[in-house]
Structures are given as structure tokens and as C-alpha cells.
TrEMBL record:
Pfam family for this entry, one: ABM
Organism: Bradyrhizobium forestalis
Protein name as it appears in the record: Antibiotic biosynthesis monooxygenase
Superkingdom of this protein's organism: Bacteria
Domain ABM: 1-55
InterPro entries xref list: ABM_dom
Length: 97
């Protein structure tokens, strides 16, 4: 299991619009990558947005980040206070309820 993680700082007050755009734009792009298992977005109190996608293979996680960063630059730029960062790697601990 591998995670693809993207993080950026949002402009204050943009949470609702970010959520709408992510649901309409990013979710279809990321879930279309082979090996897709799950997708989560966390909006922290300091306006940091973190998206976490889970995949079967590292290459799939990297592909998701490549697609996501291109989409972010094109469609989320006006709502962000800076560039998005992306990393991918193996999930070394996990649990489910």
C-alpha cells in the first residue's frame, strides 16, 4: 500500500470552494489511476489543505501526484496562497476500525 500526498496553503475563507472544486475535478482524476483505493482531504485550521490518496503500487501513487499537481496548477491556483507540494511513499502503519 502506497500513499500519494499533496499539500498547499489555501487563501483564507476558500474552504467551501476548494471542496467543491476538488469533488468535481480532482476526485475523478485521482480515482481513475489504476490501483486507486481511497482519497481523503483534510482542511486544517491554519488553511493548510492536505490530500491523501492510497494506491496498490508506488508508481501509481507517483502518477496520481503528477496528475494532481497539473490539475492543481490549472484549476486551484487562484484559491491557493502558494505552490502545492507532493510526496509519495509506502504506508508503514495503518489500521481500520
Amino acid at each position: 500500500m502506497y500513499a500519494a500526498i499533496r499539500q498547499a496553503k489555501a487563501k483564507s475563507g476558500s474552504a467551501e470552494e476548494l471542496a467543491r472544486r476538488i469533488k468535481d475535478g480532482a476526485v475523478p482524476i485521482i480515482s481513475d489511476v489504476e490501483g486507486f483505493r481511497a482519497y481523503y482531504v483534510v482542511y486544517a485550521g491554519d488553511d493548510t489543505v492536505t490530500a491523501i490518496s492510497i494506491f496498490d503500487k508506488f508508481e501509481q501513487a507517483e502518477e496520481a501526484n503528477k496528475r494532481a499537481i497539473a490539475w492543481i496548477e490549472k484549476d486551484l491556483g487562484p484559491l491557493l496562497a502558494g505552490d502545492a507540494r507532493a510526496v509519495a511513499g509506502p504506508v508503514i502503519v495503518h489500521t481500520l476500525a
